[in-house]
Amino acid sequence: MLKINGNWKKVIQTHTTSSNERIRFTVPQSRFKTGENQVAVKFESGKYPVFSLNVKLKNYLGSSPNFPQAYLIDDARPEDYYGIQKVGVIGGSFLVVFLFNFVSFVIFLKIANLILPSESWNKPSKVTLSLTVPILVPIIVNVYSIATPVTIVFPFISLMGICLIYFLLAAGALLVVRWKKVTYPVLAVVLITFGATEISMRLYNLLSPSHIFYNKSYNRYRGKQLTYYHGFPLNSKGFHDTEHPMEKPKDSFRIVALGDSFAFGFVPYQHNFLTKLEDKFKQNHSANEVINMGIGATGVRSYLSVLATEGLDYNPDMVVVNLFIGNDFEVPRKKNMNTHL
After folding, report:
1. 233-271 pLDDT per residue, tens
2. Per the omega criterion (within 30 degrees of 0), is the bond before 68 cis?
3. How confident is the model at residue 334 (pLDDT cuts 50, 70, 90)?
4. Roughly how many angstroms between the first and final C-alpha of the chain, as a whole number?
5. Which residue from 11, 4, 3 is spatially nearest to 44, judged by alpha carbons?
6. CA angle, 176 as apex, 171 and 177 as ends, to 5°?
7. Other beta carbons within 10 Å of 104
8. pLDDT for residue 33
9. pTM assigned to the model
10. Sheet holding 8-10, edge to edge
11. DSSP E strands, the chain
């Protein structure tokens, strides 16, 4: 039995005691509060239950989908031990990261001084001070997060990665300043090469859009216009539908349908539910329309963008939004598909 903050109860039935088992259910958001939440588990059977519970709140109000997070431990382990261990791990990570940056900084200066002897390498300056930023950034972030309800604790690998990126950027700036005669021509060649490549690829994608080019907008997954899908040609805008004039026919009723792959349809055009809806709709008036503007792998933000940039141009009488509860209500994030509640 699961109890949250002493009120909400949920009886969980398990089917096995010899292997891992995933159980998924919904907890009312009203049962959670800002800050610390208490989760209690009572076992009706089993002598030594060993498990881990990853809590993921399906949040419909826009806050972090990873809040709240819960970790359950058995009664045999003191609760304060877990807290001390957590602080110890964080402190140890900071110590290792600090030493890593300090040692790396000293080695870098020694090597640079051997290659190009100069007293400036050993003198404090703005550049050398910038190399201490990698040490301060994760510390500031974590201290701030501890003071807020939603705590952000970077794992050790993330700390090392963040520090290493800042360190390499600062070290690169130092090298550029020191080796002007060598680095400037090299940088010019690199910048021109990558700049020309970037411009040419963007022009190509502009003339012949393709999903292989990264694009944050919904156009990344838009269909390629006038290509065939299940034997049916996509229209000039890349939608899985026939051509529709911008000007609405007289005395007609026009619906613009938005959605992801469910609206776009992985079935032939004639079997798409929006096509069948339009067929029924035309029985009342032959000029009635349902304009399918579904684009696969998109979400509610993209639906709004499609409507604002293209859908409203059709002057619709009604807008139908097709929602998939599996992902349309989730806040954009890096998904962890292995944690459920």
Report:
1. 999 898 999 999 999 988 899 999 999 999 999 889 999
2. yes
3. very low
4. 14
5. 11
6. 100
7. 17
8. 66
9. 0.41
10. 8-10, 2-4, 39-41
11. 2-4, 8-10, 39-41, 228-229, 232-233, 254-258, 289-292, 318-321
